[in-house]
Fold these 2 entries.
Entry 1:
Amino acid sequence: MGNLQSYINMLRLKLLFICLVLSVASVKADEGMWIPALLKKYNIKDMKKAGFKLSAEDVYDINKICLKDAIVGLGSKSNPTTFTGSGSFISEKGLVLTNHHTVVSYLHKHSSEENNYLRDGFYAQNKEAELPAKGLTLSRLIRMEDVTDQLKEGTEKLSAQEASRLMNTRGKKLVKSVKTDATIIANIKAYFGGSQLFLQVYEVYRDVRIVAMPPLKLGKFGGESDNWKWPRQSADFGILRVYGNSNNESLKYSITNQPITPVNHLELSLKGYEEDDFAMVYGFPGGTKQYLTARAIQQVAEVKNYHGIKIRDAKMEVITNAMNSSEELWLKYSDYMAKTSNSLLRWKAESRGIEKLNLVKVKQEEEKEFTNWVNSSKELKLKYADIIPGIASCVERLDTIEKLNVYVLEAGIKGSNFTSFAGTFDMLNAICSRKNVNEKRLNKELRKLRVGVSNFFAEYDLETEKKFLKVMVKLYDENVGDSLKPNSIIEARKKYNGNFDKFIDEAFEQSIFASKDKLNDFLKYFTKEDAKKLDNDPVFKLCLSYFLINKDHVMRQRGNIRKEYGKYHNRYLQAIKEMREGEKMIADANRSLRVSYGNIKGINDNGVHYPYMSSLNDLVEKNEKNPKIYTAPKGYVQTCKDAINNSKKTIPTCFISNCHTTGGNSGSAVLNAKGKLIGLNFDSAGNGLVGDYKFMPELTRQISVDIRYVRFVLENQLKAKALLEEWK
């Protein structure tokens, strides 16, 4: 009987194991941010199983117009293909749909107390009223090509350094061989630690203008209280228009002042969706770290996130108090508050997910599997046995320096906007320290600084910045050893018995940075002898010291160790690819075009089930329960109530799916099974942020604003009738 029971137990264990394997296999189809050019090879069968109705060529093809031709990445004038967000063409006249939060800073530059576009929203009644998004660029991928063999040919017998040098030379020649000017640029992207290389060619649009954006209270409904959470009701969208590049080949670049006719634009679907319907996210995800080791994950949670959270919590208290004190400060610090809180809440959610998933242990099990594979042959041992110990050694040495890096940057250099501003005066000091002062260069620097002074005092409030300094100096003192502190902090602790508020107040009383007028006078009557005033200025000395500590004790040391770590990590990726040869593997996101797919699904979190869709009813209910947090523009809630009463159907606002996304996917088009636009990605549900390190379908949900809600806001709040006529 005992033997029979043992046999039954063994069968049960086997059955349980098979069920687990099958459950993992069933979610694999949804996992990952996939390279569009490889969908036909690796993904299309799984996409079809999930409900997709089109072909791989409909998603990506270089011989015909396809969905990829409607997708754009958001970049900057200096780095057009270092994408910070995504968007998509939605009309034949160059309209582009993206997130409110990805482009609100460009609207902020046009805002004032008289024209408070952040508060009131913006809609250009005609093309002449559209506002330039200065510095913003959009880029469309023309083609991508696997050039691995081409770049690596004949490098097998070379040293790693020689091979890298030869491949870089070949890569540069290849990029130059592509027609490159101000509108066509190319780069080479590495995947799996450099074991796979793609040439990518883009068309860049440099004349981008703002057409419509909702008020901040709708675009970020619920503010920071709802960030990284579900359910949501945010109208997180912005509409831009692209104007044309010149076809005149004699000109490197010029503006025609006419909207472009894009190669393709997305079709709109207003039919909606049901739970379990197919969904696909198409955009430019920034970066994931799916292959970090257990020790590296531990450092993320216990060093980087832990101390970053401590610092930004303190900053948020200062920002919140300032913004609550006056309309002027609300306007000045809205954008800074959003940027500060976004990373703060992300770090908190990441750390919760790491703990909830017990990710350190999960990674340890993965490393055991890898080590067993390495130990399976002498050849593999010779190639890869040093990788895991090497990574562990690097991470161990990085622990202390990563903590210092957090405090130098978050509490020091970026501890206040003022610190970065004061640091710009260092060049003036450097120019005057030379034996023969270049007067022309000196005058140019003075003119530049005068503009900087004007901009700083227009954008920020000095008293608020002083409060930042007081809090950040105290945090730095409490968490960093004396050998790595500015001398002024050590002296202040002794002189003021740790009263850093008094230290900062008295430092400003003695400083040229005490006021805008005092600073302008300093620059107006400046002579090279006045540079000594900077050397002795207590505020300048404090601010500059952070930059010097970063230079002398962080950048070089951290850079050297991370370079060593990077070599081990790349070899680790290459080894894993070899270990899983023939399997479908996720390539970490790297700011290149990717496809994620899955299904629209609700979520169970901490014993509570949340539905896959939110509605206007939810918005009204939140507003009525807590109007201080869930505020809306005057009259908007009544508009929603009227719409609810007049409609026979639920009016959706947002929805969630189990597609795998990350930062950079903000503004990505969310498409249905027929490739039609149903939503706009803007966030992830909290615990799912651990998906950057390990995708977990039960935890991971991306959040999208429903395209029908975008149109509702355009119609009922912005009164954008002409825009709705264009976008059909």
Note: Residues 1-29, 246-254 have pLDDT under 50 and may be disordered.
Entry 2:
Amino acid sequence: MPTTPPPLSPALQKLLYDGYQHQLRGQYDDAARHYRKILRAAPDQMDVVHLLGIVRARQSREAEAIELYKKVLARRPDDAKAWHNLSLAYGALEQAADSLAAMDRAFDLDPSLPLAANLLLPARRAIWDWRGHDRLYDSLKRGAVLPDVPALPFATLYADDPALHLATARRKVAEEKMPARPRVFDHSARRTASGPIRIAYLSADFRTHATTFLISKLLARHDRSRFEVTAISVSFNDGSPQRQSIIDAVDHFLDREKASPSAIAEEVAALGIDVFVDLMGHTSGECLAAFADHPAPVQVNFLGYPGTSGAPFMDYVIADPVVVPFADAAYFTEKIVHLPDCYQPNDPDLPVGERPTRADCGLPDDAFVFCAFNSAWKLDPEVFSAYTRILKAVPGSVLWVLESRENSADNLRREAEARGLDPARLVFAPMVPLKDHFARLPLADLFLDTFPYTAHTTASDMLRMGLPMVTRTGRSFASRVAASIMTQMNLADFVTTDVDGFVAKAVALAHDPAALAEARARLAAARATSPLFDIDRYARHMERAFETMVARFRAGLSPEAFAVEPLPRG
């Protein structure tokens, strides 16, 4: 057992006090100098070693901080805070495996660490590692409202709780120092401007990403006699055809990966942008701070994040009557705008590869195949339990799952076995190019959705390829997207509202080949006529929304909720 070091002398206590005061004021060089003096005289003072590690991490000297934390843990292996700080230092150096291992240990020692839940829950869910899931989930929800814990809005979407989503988003905006401020940009010239309305779309996902697959055709189809379109990229250039499709679709493409939010705001204002559209919200790579000073007279939250930004400087959120009814206005800081059909745009012309056989995909020829191709992190223990209930009620059926990260399949097999389901009934599909992914979808019989974060782009993919799906809808934007998409494809009767209804619907369809065949026929008919894949109709509706927003601004009116009048169907 390590011995307790003797107490510090009065002189060293004075050095410790002064060093800590320097640390609190951000005077890290002075703090480090005081701590090193103490350690030269009393090297066994692990509290001081820990403080010096924190200071080094604040100075972006993470490698040195890691060695200091390890020194503490060699003497105090059960120090949760030291493990926690070690994880953060590894994370700053992008040593993900070491960071997660250290955070695992920290959380095991102190489950009250809500920041640990913020990091561990998404990481574990991405590989179907549900150890301590309920404990982590509860800790994350508690942390979402604690003032001393960084808010992580995206992770709260795991809960079907729009009030929690709003509270966490607001806290995130406040933490990032993006409160409503007096507008420093003069938009008076835009009140009387003539010519096309100038739109700028900002995203970190103008690359091989679902957002780009959804939106590139919309950008190309904007009426250039009425709109001038700019795309602002705030992430890396992956050199993909998808990035090139965005470049080709717009009038101006601005690569601003290295630009600061304030520089982007200045440029938006200088370009005289009328409508500044954020395609990110609180997702990875977001740049919401570029909107904070309101560099454009109209600012819009659209597509990338299924919830409120929580930002008082965002004027509107694009939705539809299913995903965000006007009655949910209290959960949004933006004014709600309803598009007539579905809020999600879709490219009707994405290529489809050559269809494989079931044998090519490792699927049995004579089994009923349930498909679960949502991202791994959307699946939780409750939903997987529902899946196992369904499979047990349909003898011989298999669950076709989109493979997650390396070695994650064993985690899901273990979960199946724990629920009394033969792991051999899980079939894992590798990641493939999108055209080949589309081609294999019709091999399945029925798609099973997740909850509360339902299929979004994935729902469009399933229905595009004629695969029926069952979903469950709830109270939040994220929980209603699949329902909105299915409504546009004449499949609203496959939308359920609770887990028992979800299970019952899936089982009934698996035992009713005629009903499934009729659903496939409905999808085939809807594919040619549904507004979901009518990108020109969608573009005209979006343009009407932008024109209404700009007209209100030019008339001196504040943003207000409204519904876009639908175009007549031809």
Note: The chain has three domains: 1-110, 188-338, 359-532.
